[in-house]
Write a structure and sequence with these properties.
193 residues, Arc Repressor Mutant, subunit A, 2 domains, 4-stranded antiparallel beta sheet, 3-stranded antiparallel beta sheet
Length: 193
């Protein structure tokens, strides 16, 4: 794993706290692959900037920022467990309620710097480009068809054996969704990336 710059690490910390509502110092240190002391210093900077509130053993998102929980695609309130975040080169990140809406937003956007999603089993943020997507399983948790994201192919395969669905990379999942949601003037199943 490449070492993140302090700015990238702070962004990852904010993403995790925004997705889950709170995060422990140990969880943040593990996710960012740094020491707990580094996380303490990062949290102090973020608190001084008014972005988070430190709590014993962790942090929560500053209350004035919690209004970002409405999905940028469908407007549903995000539970946090399915959060998908698209970061743009210029401008604020956009949050969606699930990977389905996240990939639709990603495919319709330009100037994307990074996309992050929540690992369905473990509840930590992972790169959307490296995630394994389970499409259309028997477990409906948000938008349909359900897309669940996993950081491990082995875990995704185990989950698939119990709940069905199709495993895909990010590109394959986007292609599948675009085939279901054709752009104006296209026939269903003919949408292109």
């Amino acid at each position: 794993m490449t070492k993140l710059s302090p700015a990238e690490r702070e962004r990852q910390i904010l993403d995790l706290i925004a997705a889950k509502g709170s995060a422990s110092i140990e969880e943040l240190a593990q996710t960012c692959s740094v020491s707990t002391m580094t996380i303490h210093r990062d949290l102090q900077r973020l608190e001084k900037m008014g972005r988070i509130q430190k709590r014993h053993g962790g942090a929560i998102l500053e209350e004035s920022l919690t209004g970002r929980s409405a999905c940028a695609m469908c407007g549903k309130t995000s539970s946090g467990k399915q959060t998908f975040i698209v970061h743009f080169t210029h401008g604020d990140p956009k949050h969606t309620c699930c990977a389905h809406c996240g990939l639709m937003l990603l495919s319709a956007s330009q100037d994307v710097w990074q996309a992050m999603t929540m690992d369905f089993l473990h509840g930590h943020m992972i790169s959307a480009g490296q995630a394994i997507y389970l499409i259309g399983c028997d477990l409906n948790v948000c938008c349909v068809p359900t897309l669940l994201t996993f950081g491990s192919r082995t875990e995704a395969e185990r989950f698939q054996s119990g709940f069905g669905g199709t495993l895909a990379t990010m590109e394959q999942a986007i292609h599948s969704l675009l085939g279901m949601h054709p752009k104006e003037g296209q026939e269903e199943g003919t949408a292109k990336l």
